[in-house]
Specification:
The chain is α/β, with parallel strands linked by helices. Helices cover about 45% and strands about 25% of the residues.
Length: about 325
């Protein structure tokens, strides 16, 4: 079946999935959206709610469906995941979600192997790897949301501190999305000016302490939001919209998505969040990133953490 590049499928209609559907409805990127959930009433309710706002948006078809309805979808977004209990460890959550993915990804792969799959469920790097292993899809066609939102948070906080437009700030959070992610200050710039030089120009001759503080704030933002309002999803939704824009418009945008690494920085066979060129067919290639030895060491540490979990869940042979 020929793909409809203007059709998106959302698998999982929890907070992040529903918020992402709302953002995509308003984007004008798609003419058709199907919502799929293990609870059909949930998908139907969200589809009805969204559809009733179409008078204020661009025309599109929004409906609840099943896996057969995603066979021609150009983009398939997966937010389906288990609920993390208070006594669950990270490994518990990984194992729970990998089991869910064994069903969800297999059902998708039976029906569609030419679209692009965007993994949003957490932990995103490990689940991106799981989706690659389970689906058998071409590797570039599966990518995770990665540190797209974390990088946006980093740039926003820097822009506030330096009183400059966030769109002129170029800095990345990379590695394992979450507490292990690494800010790359060595190659960070503001409109081409190295970040430390720009800080000095704006009255901060030694920004090291601020850099440490801002990195901690970015790493813990989701936890703080979740503690205050039970879940974080609006920023996720905007990140999903941004990646979909790059795919649908074939923008060749550089975004820190999660994808499989092959030897760069001595990291092989793991999905990590690194800057990559994203276009119509998903990830085209990784973009080289200059790092200090300290940053590189931190990246390798976070990669080792991911590898230990992946080996535990999938076996060292993989």
């Amino acid at each position: 079946m020929a793909l409809n590049q203007r059709k998106v499928a959302m698998v999982g209609c929890g907070s992040s999935g529903a918020a992402s559907c709302f953002a995509l409805m308003q984007s004008g990127l798609f003419t058709e959206m199907v919502l799929i959930d293990s609870l059909p009433d949930k998908a139907e309710g969200e589809a009805m709610d969204l559809s009733q706002g179409l008078t204020f948006a661009r025309p599109m078809k929004i409906y609840a469906g099943d896996y057969d309805d995603l066979s021609d979808a150009g983009i398939i977004i997966v937010t389906a995941a288990g609920v993390q209990r208070s006594d669950d460890t990270k490994l518990d959550l990984v194992k729970k979600n990998v089991q869910i993915f064994k069903t969800v990804i297999a059902e998708i792969a039976k029906r569609n192997e030419e679209g692009v799959m965007l993994i949003v469920a957490n932990p995103v790097d490990i689940l991106t790897y799981a989706a690659l292993k389970i689906s058998g899809w071409a590797e570039g066609r599966i990518l995770g949301l990665g540190t797209v939102l974390d990088t946006a948070r980093l740039r926003s906080l820097l822009s506030e501190k330096l009183s400059v437009d966030a769109r002129n700030v170029h800095a990345y959070m990379v590695g394992e999305q979450g507490r292990g992610e690494v800010p790359i200050w060595s190659s960070a710039t503001v409109s081409g000016i190295p970040i430390r030089d720009f800080c000095e120009m704006r009255g901060y001759p030694d920004p090291s302490d601020y850099f440490d503080m801002i990195a901690k704030e970015v790493r813990t933002s989701a936890d703080v939001i979740t503690r205050k309002k039970k879940a974080a999803y609006y920023g996720v939704a905007m990140g999903v919209r941004r990646v979909c824009e790059a795919i649908v418009r074939d923008e060749k945008s550089v975004l820190p998505v999660s994808s499989l690494m092959y030897g760069a920085f001595d990291i092989d066979g793991l999905a990590l969040s690194m800057p990559a060129i994203v276009g119509r067919n998903g990830v085209e290639c990784l973009v080289p990133l200059d790092m200090s030895e300290e940053e590189l060491d931190e990246l390798r540490k976070t990669a080792a953490t991911v590898k230990a979990i992946v080996d535990d869940v999938f076996g060292e042979a993989r």
